[in-house]
Specification:
Pfam families: Acetyltransf_1 (PF00583). This protein is of the alpha+beta class and about 150 residues long. It has a single domain (about 1-135), classed as Aminopeptidase (3-Layer(aba) Sandwich), CATH 3.40.630.30. It contains four helices and five strands. It has a five-stranded mixed β-sheet with strand order 1-2-3-4-5, with helices on both faces. The chain is globular.
Length: about 150
């Protein structure tokens, strides 16, 4: 199995939107197409803000798009420089726990390094023990006594 990342072109945009909808459903989040579409188009047209990747798997001579990942760039005084933030990471249900994520994480970290990031930050649902254990095997550490807060403007 060969896993690769590629930026979506116009032909793959609807696939990206459909996967975003599936990710929102999986996380029990409301999905509104317009703001999601605007966000994807912004990232695709302004690469200095981040990157959108489709996750492709070549298996048994067939290539299939099975997920996507959004990496955005920010700055952190605490981390001492630019950071990459994994904003969304989705793998289709039937491809989970097959080693795809274990191949994606190093590819994303390499991309972050190419953009001079000194760290990668991500968010995991506190109740998702499997995801926490997955990221910990790549040396991601939970921040004790922290919660993420947000306000929609």
């Amino acid at each position: 199995m060969i896993v690769s990342l590629r930026q979506p072109d116009a032909n793959a945009f609807e696939t990206l939107i459909a996967m975003s909808r599936a990710q929102h459903e999986h996380e029990a989040l409301p999905f509104e197409r317009e703001p999601v579409e605007i966000a994807f188009k912004t990232l695709l047209s302004q690469p200095e803000r981040g990157a959108v990747f489709l996750i492709d798997v070549e298996h048994n001579g067939e290539c299939e798009t099975i997920g996507y990942l959004v990496l955005v760039y920010s700055f952190s005084v605490e981390n001492g420089g630019s950071v990459g933030v994994i904003d969304q990471f989705f793998i289709a249900q039937n491809w989970r726990r097959q080693g795809v994520g274990s191949q994606v994480i190093p590819l994303v970290e390499a991309t972050a390094k190419q953009h001079d990031c000194v760290a990668v930050i991500l968010e995991v649902n506190i109740g998702n023990k499997g995801a926490r254990l997955f990221y910990e095997q790549f040396d991601y550490q939970p921040r004790r006594q922290h919660c993420i807060m947000s306000k929609r403007l």
